[in-house]
């Protein structure tokens, strides 16, 4: 299979299991949504795949990209193949968007310094993320949606040469965005999934059901189910994992999910 394969991944901190024997796949060319309640282990899974778990954490299991082991690669090589956009990305307000995106090329250099080829990749990443018009603006001037585009562009600047496998990991990319920005961002993510595996954590189950090709449902660090959105996001599973009753209305242009307390 082309794409990501997570095999029996486990992450523990001070003896507490945050991710427990998790196995799932994210095919290239598709969007895979990681969903689950707060504290289910979704963000920890993404960070473990990217190789940025805390030093005090113990981890086991494997992560493969197009059949090649990522978890045993040197950090610099892994960073060339896989990019993580986290919920809270430290940003220096005085940096321009272009300068922030240039940082994405760092894994490709042992000594800081950028070639004309690097600059072309930076401009291409800005364009692909729809952030070209923001290139000369400082990060401190940008809205939340605009910042997300810049962070995506920085992740895209890490990508390897054409034809090499790559994956993009997005931790709550729609968080704190209004509805219009959410739809814009998800349309962009759809375009980016054309030739790579894209995995995003999502709290809004309706967004996952409408915009993802596959859903991985996580609870207590374990994978409860994976597959197509309609197969995974059932009323019974939502009741079991989230502790609420759900009514799911599917239509060709999207999915609506209504919730109510179980004792209501």
TrEMBL record:
Keywords: ATP-binding, Nucleotide-binding, Translocase, Transport. CDD domains: ABC_Iron-Siderophores_B12_Hemin (cd03214). InterPro entries: AAA+_ATPase, ABC_transporter-like_ATP-bd, P-loop_NTPase. It comes from the Bacteria. GO terms for molecular function: ATP binding. It holds the Pfam family ABC_tran. It comes from Agrococcus citreus. Residues 4-245 form the ABC transporter domain. This is ABC transporter ATP-binding protein.
